[in-house]
Amino acid sequence: MKLLTYKLLFLFSVILLASCSDDDEKAAGNPVMDIKSEFTNAMYGDSLPFTVSVTDEVPLSTLKARIYYGEEKVSEVVIRTKTNGSYSGKIYVPFFKDTPDGKAKLEFTLQNINFTLTNKTYDLTVTRPVFPYLTFVTASKEYKMLHKSGHNYELTETLPQKIKGYIKAPKTTSNGNELTFGWESGAIAFGSTEPITFSNLTAGEYTISFNTQDYSAAPFIVAYVVNGVKMEKLAEGDTEDRYKRDLALKQGDEVRVEGIDDFNEWWIDPDFFTQDGDKLTFKPIDGDYRIIADFVRRYLKVEVMSGTAPASLKEDGTGAIWIVGDGVGKPALKYAPSWNPSMGICMAPMGNGKYRASFVAGEMISASNINFVFIHQKDWGTGFKGSQTVSGGDRTLEVVSDLILIGEGQNVNGVDNGNLALIKDKSLTEGKTYVFEIEAPAGLVGCKLTITEK
């Protein structure tokens, strides 16, 4: 009986000890912070350093520092606190667009493994820095932007018509950071170094401005001008970077182009213009035209228009003739339109039913392999053929050349009907200019292509 009593007492003691152990493990604890830093003022864009000594009778978990603008948490740092001791870090004071000077809340939270918390809060007076200057950073040079007033900065300098770069602001306090402003998603964005493209009407001395509060900036003048009128984007979303100007021109008119910084390096099509220094004189007959500034190919493309649409060849021999295919291109052979009529080359109408296009062999036309056609519209439809029997609006074209022929069909002369090709064992002379001139008389009967080497 005594033995049984002792066993029961022993079992009760074990249960009691286990219960006490569980109570100890679940003790709430008392996390204590001793913050060694003082916080009263800060600048937007600062990184505030802090040192905190932490203790507790149960293991600690994390130390968190948070910044709030109003009720919104805008910054947070989390430090693992495995043992009692001293922990240091920095918390960023976010620099946001349009945020006014005001109050922010800095909060420290210490937590132990039993989720017991201790908080300490500071009220911060936060102001937007006024930088002594900014720096506009381009790929080749850095320019200083001077402080003018408030948060406005300006750079006045002799600059190209377009210039790309990002803006950099220096540290203003010991806790400050170098800040950057670049271009993201179609707007100036904080923290980016993607280049901002500023553009003026012309190269020369002008002013670039930037406001570090609302991110307003200037100039963004995308203005390419022909004869005093601004050009328009050829088509929205056009990845080719092309601009157009539709206008009536007379033979002998001066064509003035402004706003293209390196225009003196562009190729000028001698079929449409006579060039004398910066002066361009229009060569074709009077009519309605579209001038396209092609920034990829770096030349002025000219097309004959009928109202707001590209012109077509008419029965009376007026209108336009277009070239599509391979082995020929302007301003270089690599820009051949291939079989895409929307990129077709428009021949220059010279009057009396004559149309002209000239190409330099080896540069704009292949000396050894050509395959292109003449069509009556800037689209698939009717065109010129080599066959004497035509229908559906096609017209027969006679070719006068000892180098080039027009196809009459694979079964006739080995070339597709209407396609131009080099005569067997013939080639063009590299560096020579070949002038293609089509005569299209009224009625479009007896059309003739003459090819002249110059």
From the structure above, extract its key features:
454 residues, mainly beta, Immunoglobulin-like, 4 domains, 6-stranded mixed beta sheet, 6% helix, 47% strand
Give an overview of the whole structure.
The chain is mainly beta and 454 residues long. 6% of the residues lie in helices and 47% in strands. The protein has two helices and 39 strands. The strands form nine sheets. Strands 9, 10, 11, 12, 13, 14, 15, 16 and 17 form a nine-stranded antiparallel sheet that branches. A hairpin with a 4-residue loop joins strand 9 (133-137) and strand 10. Mean pLDDT is 92; it is low at 14-24. This is DUF5125 domain-containing protein. Residues 1-18 form the signal peptide. Residues 123-305 form the DUF5125 domain. Residues 2-118 form the DUF5016 domain.
SSE layout:
Layout: H1 2-25, E1 32-35, E2 41-43, E3 47-55, E4 60-69, E5 72-80, E6 85-92, E7 102-112, E8 117-127, E9 133-137, E10 142-149, E11 152-159, E12 162-169, E13 179-184, E14 187-190, E15 196-199, E16 204-211, E17 217-218, E18 225-226, E19 229-230, E20 232-233, E21 242-249, E22 254-255, E23 257-258, E24 273-276, E25 279-282, E26 287-294, E27 299-306, E28 309-310, E29 322-326, E30 345-346, E31 348-351, E32 354-360, E33 371-375, E34 384-385, E35 395-400, E36 404-406, H2 410-413, E37 420-422, E38 433-439, E39 447-453
Parallel strand pairs: 2-8, 34-35, 35-39
Antiparallel strand pairs: 1-3, 3-6, 4-5, 4-7, 7-8, 9-10, 9-12, 10-11, 11-16, 12-13, 12-15, 13-14, 16-17, 18-19, 18-23, 20-21, 21-26, 22-25, 24-25, 26-27, 27-28, 29-30, 29-33, 31-32, 32-38, 36-37, 38-39
